[in-house]
Every structure is written in structure tokens, then in C-alpha cells.
Amino acid sequence: MKNLQLCILFVVGLFLQNAIAQKPPMGIYLTQADYLNHKLSYVTQEGNIRLNNMFKSSNIVVNDAGTKKVLMKKEIFGYRSENTDYRFFNNQAYKIVDGKDFYIYTHPILVPDQKGLKSVTAYYFSPKVTDTIEALTKGNVEAAYAQNTKFRYMVEGQFRSDDDLAAYDSVIKSFKIKYLYAESTK
């Protein structure tokens, strides 16, 4: 009976060790080149990097082998956490949700609600990974792609409001605006 209990504990221990080992690592992208090459610095498990995302803090703290390092957000590109990439811009972390052709980001914002404030997902974009992140609006898209007349006309004709720009087509697994952009460059 004691051998059976030990065997069960051993199997449970292996299972737990495997489950912990499979947790995706967290790390910092020091530059946009690191991000594009999927090269993480300070690779660690959650908890060893403090992002300080409240109140637009200007730094993050990394616990690297027992030594605390303070990095300025404006001097690093972003980070990866739970298999998701984020880019820092103006001391805030923007989730990178699509990087094909141009970049689409999300970021939570607070908006008035009947009972106070509620958090909603706002959409942003940048033509290149190094460009300024701007709100995903018809005006901003048309200004960013002023030279691509076909795309501007497609955006103008296809989307009635700024909120429509974040529409996702689950059949083709793409944002509709991304599909239009690809069509405009053919």
C-alpha cells in the first residue's frame, strides 16, 4: 500500500513539474530588431519582471539572478507575456494583435458608464513597427496612407464609423481592414 502511495505521489509530482515547466516564459524586447527576430532578453517566469503599468510609470524592474535592474520604458521596445507581445509607447503597453502589412494594437481605456467607469478595448495602429501608435480612426488611416488612393477609397466606402475599422472576419481569420489593404496593394 505504501508503495502505491509513493508511486501516485511520484506521478503527480511529474505531472506538476511538467505543467510548471510548460508555462510560457516572459521576457523583454530591448529593440524593435529583437522583437522582429523574436529575441527576448531577461527571459524569466512571471513575477520576476514588474511592469509598473499603473499611472503611466516610466520604468520596469527586472529581477535578474537576484539583482534588480531598472529599465526605462522609452529605451526598450516591449515585452512578451503568456505568448502575447506588447509594445511600449508613451509609457503604456499596447498589445500587438496583428503585424501583417501594418500593425494593429489594443489597449484598455476607461469610458463613462451608467454606474461610473468601465474598461473597454480601444484599437490603435502604426504603419511600421517603429512608427507612432495612433488611434484606429478613418482620418488617421487615410492620413497614414495618403499615397495609397485605392486603399483610402476602400476604407471610405467600406466603413461607416471608426468603430467599424476593428471588424474581424472569422472566416478568413483577419481584420477586414487588413484584407482591404492587401487587396489595394495587388
Can you tell me about this structure?
The protein is of the alpha+beta class. The chain has a domain at 1-89. Helices cover 27% and strands 36% of the residues. It is globular. The N and C termini lie far apart (71 Å). Mean pLDDT is 86; it is low at 2-12.
Helix percent reads 25-40%
How many E strands? 13
Cα Rg: 21 Å
Succession of helices and strands: HEHEEEEEEEEEEHHEEH
For the sheet with most strands, the description reads:
8 strands, antiparallel
**How many alpha or pi helices?**
5
Spans of at least 5 consecutive residues whose pLDDT stays below 50 are 2-12
Given the C-alpha coordinates, what overall shape results? globular
Strand order of the largest sheet: 2-1-6-7-8-9-10-11
Label the structural class.
alpha+beta
**Percent strand:** 35-45%
Q: Write down the overall mean pLDDT.
A: 86
- Between the first and last Cα atoms, what is the distance in angstroms? 71 Å
Can you give keywords for this protein?
13 strands; globular; about 190 residues; 5 helices; disordered N terminus; about 35% strand; single chain; alpha+beta; eight-stranded antiparallel sheet; three-stranded antiparallel sheet
Q: How would you concisely characterize the structure shown here?
A:
The chain is of the alpha+beta class. It is built from 5 helices and 13 strands. The protein starts with a helix and ends with a helix.
